[in-house]
Design the sequence.
């Protein structure tokens, strides 16, 4: 009996010595899904930060890496801000602009999202500048919380996020609130 194996793709590693103790390893010709799973490309967790008097705020390093192609900040739906990658902001734009403009709620949604949107630019310290009108709309004035939301992240005032967290502490109310979503957690 003869068994034949077919090699689908070869993996190459470039290894070069940088200093005596360190070795740099790079992967080449590997599909991206082999390296990163979808969950590794999500905004997860929560981080406490501050906004300085000029409106600058440091973004967590892991989040900055996911925003390498650019980001947009706009008003959220819960007196907070949302930060989306360039590609997700473009997808959002395409979707909302495919909705019927004859509906007043659609027009209001477009106004909410785009009239308050700004492009986020990182300085050398990994900070973004949040304009005053966005800081005012989300009550951001010092202590803030950066909250992962999967495909994007939110920026909350510490006070408002603490109030939101208190709501989640009541297990019975939380379970009742989310039972309609039938989450597959089995």
Sequence:
């Amino acid at each position: 009996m003869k068994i034949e194996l077919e090699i689908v793709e070869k993996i190459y590693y470039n290894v070069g010595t940088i200093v005596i103790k360190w070795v740099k390893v790079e992967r080449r010709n590997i599909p991206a899904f082999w390296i990163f799973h979808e969950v590794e490309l999500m905004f997860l967790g929560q981080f406490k930060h501050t906004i300085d008097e000029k409106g600058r705020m440091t973004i967590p390093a892991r989040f900055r890496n996911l925003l390498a192609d650019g980001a947009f900040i706009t008003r959220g739906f819960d007196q907070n801000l949302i930060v989306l990658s360039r590609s997700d902001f473009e997808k959002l734009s395409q979707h909302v602009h495919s909705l019927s403009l004859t509906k007043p709620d659609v027009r209001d949604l477009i106004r909410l999202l785009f009239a308050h949107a700004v492009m986020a630019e990182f300085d050398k310290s990994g900070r973004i500048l949040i304009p005053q009108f966005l800081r005012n709309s989300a009550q951001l004035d010092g202590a803030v919380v950066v909250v992962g939301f999967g495909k994007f992240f939110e920026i909350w005032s510490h006070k408002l996020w603490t109030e939101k967290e208190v709501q989640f502490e009541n297990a019975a109310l939380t379970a009742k609130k989310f039972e309609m979503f039938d989450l597959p957690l089995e």
The chain has one domain: 42-172.
